[in-house]
Structures are given as C-alpha cells and as structure tokens.
Amino acid sequence: MLSRAIILLIAGQKYLAALGFLRIISWAILFSIMAWLFSDCVLIVVKRETLILRNTVMVALLNVGLNLVLIPLLSDQGAAISTVIVELSAMLLNYWTCRDIVNLIILNKDTCKNIFEVLVGCMGIVIVCGLCERVSNIFIQIVLAVSISGLVYVSILLLLRNQFLFKLVKQLKKK
Questions:
Q1: What pLDDT, on the 0 to 100 scale, is given for residue 18?
Q2: 3-class secondary structure per residue, the chain
C-alpha cells in the first residue's frame, strides 16, 4: 500500500519505474512465508524431508522455465511475476504434501473466523493508506499511514472480538 511513498522516500522520483515491480514482488513474500511454514514447521517435523526436496526441485525447474519465457517478454516485471508464481507454487505443493496434517487446523471454525477477521482488518488498512495518499509530504504520509493503519487494524480486531488478540492482551496483562 505504501510502495510509491517508500520508493519516493528512499530512492526518489527517478526510481518510480520500480513501482510495478515492487507491487508485484510483495505478493511473493506472503506465499514464501506460507511455503516455509508448511515445509519447516510441518513437513520437517513429521520427517517428510524427501517430499520437500521433490517440491523444491519441481519449483526450481518451474522458476528457470518461467524466467526464460517471462524475462525476455516483460523484463523486470517478468522476473517479479515469475517469482510470485514460483512462490505460490511452492506454497501449494508444500500445502498439498502436508494437507492431511494441516487441514485439521486450517479448516477449523476458529481459524476460518480468524482469517475473516484479519481480512476485514486488512481492508481497514487499505482504506487508511488510500486516504493518506492525499498527504503531500511523503515522510508524514508514511508515518500517518502506518500508525493509523495499526490503530484501525487493532480496533477492527477488537470490534470483531478476535480471540487471538484477546489472548495476547490477556498474556500481556499477566506480565
């Protein structure tokens, strides 16, 4: 949400061409983290390392193939798109490999409710960041967007009575 402002603050106007790349590649982070969770926190724990290796080889081959096709066509945007597709594929392969274990958690009513609440909170962040784009000073825009977004996100989770946030608050009160 703040990619334009961050590029302007860190690098300046001449690097705004990287905006599309940054917006595309940021999705890869989400998929990469989920792929890591499935592999390192589930598959390794249950001794399925050979399946992780298989998935990694498949994804590496996909990465090479996509880069050979997309980079000549789309340059840095092609590399970003390739990275997102590869990370999504890694996440899906790792999920598929441990679905018998994680579906008990993912398909749980509480988990689905939590995901819904987080997505509603994210919509609040999108709205706040969109409104903050009207601030002309980039530094102030980023500070306002981050601080107000955080407050809005937590407020939404509180309003929706997010169980994980309430547990966190309870733990902090004990300390």
A1: 85
A2: CCHHHHHHHHCCHHHHHHHHHHHHHHHHHHHHHHHHHHHHHHHCCCCCHHHHHHHHHHHHHHHHHHHHHHHHHHCHHHHHHHHHHHHHHHHHHHHHHHHHHHHHHHCCHHHHHHHHHHHHHHHHHHHHHHHHCCCCCHHHHHHHHHHHHHHHHHHHHHHCCCHHHHHHHHHHHHC
